Amino acid sequence: MNPLLDRLQSYPFEKLRKLFSGVRPNPAFTPINFGIGEPRHPAPDFIRQALADNPAGLSRYPATLGTIALREAIANWLARRYGIPAPDPAKQILPTLGSREALFALAQTVLDPAGHGIVVCPNPFYQIYEGAALLGGAEPYFINASPEMNFACDYDSVPQEIWAKTKLLYTCSPANPTGAVMTLPQWKKLFELSDRYGFVIASDECYSEIHFGTPPLGGLEAAHQLGREGYPRLIMLSSLSKRSNVPGMRSGFVAGDETLIGKFLLYRTYHGTAMSETVQAASVAAWNDERHVEENRAKYIGKFREALPVLRQVLNVAMPDAGFYLWAEVHEKTGLSDTEFARGLYESHHVTVLPGSYLAREAQGENPGKNRVRIALVAEPEECREGMARIAEFARQHS
Fold first, then answer.
1. What is the pLDDT of residue 115?
2. Is the dihedral of CA 61, 67, 69, 70 positive or negative?
3. Same structural domain, 77 and 206
């Protein structure tokens, strides 16, 4: 067996199952799950119809490169969304099976398994970053997201000897779980570090379309504004899962540096990760339509407007820059740790939230997720309303 597998930690939801082991939730309540970031708004009818209208794709092996129609639809969406010249569909865009598998596979393309390099990650973080680093033969280095800096990563705190060994850096904007959005000066700093030390930047932007008025700045957009033609050493990743409420389609893309895209295409040709042409046809329809995205966004805005006044009475919680998570500090007002809060809430009110410490690692002497919980506002508004009331009632019992 690959010995690197032994270095992988349990996934957060496996830890959650263990935390809840032996607990019998209060039968007076129906279950409400805010623990997993899975969009639960209905998939748009026109996307369902596009899948039904293109059955022929099920009878053919799809090409790894994808159809030109899909790559052009993605290029045109990028141009509209970010105000950049449309990337070259032939060289700068590659369809992927969502963003998760691409985040993992990109590391296997970029990292030299014999090089013992470093992969820099935000902390807290999406655990795929860590697993991709470890299975690529590299060491993860975590930079704590500081609430004093609006949960930004302090890249100036990283020692030069770490940067000298860095081969890949993951960034997530809007961030999971904090919702923080990177600014242009922060991007400029990252690009300068990438130029100096030669590492690749993987920009995870899967939450970019869940915002509250100001569209988050993207990596390609920042590079364009700073005059970085060709997006050197930059790959952005996105998907339809959150934007269009179709996580089961597994439809996403990578875009950016054409040299990296070319190497990634070679890797994926062997990896066998080609998207069904039926799904590609539905994806074209999704990327070409913004009305359903605006309706989806309005739904999230409404849920945040209702949730925050309720939770602010009992927890330390703030409106995120973007995304669909609340990153709530629970200890100060309830005296409970994040795990105690999650277990107690599940037992007494049958509501699931995710302990923040499960989404982070101890780095520089602290776990930045400690005493926080992640609340995913993914359910329909009525269920979210009921869940917020239950969380508030539980918190009051421990205030």
1. 83
2. positive
3. yes
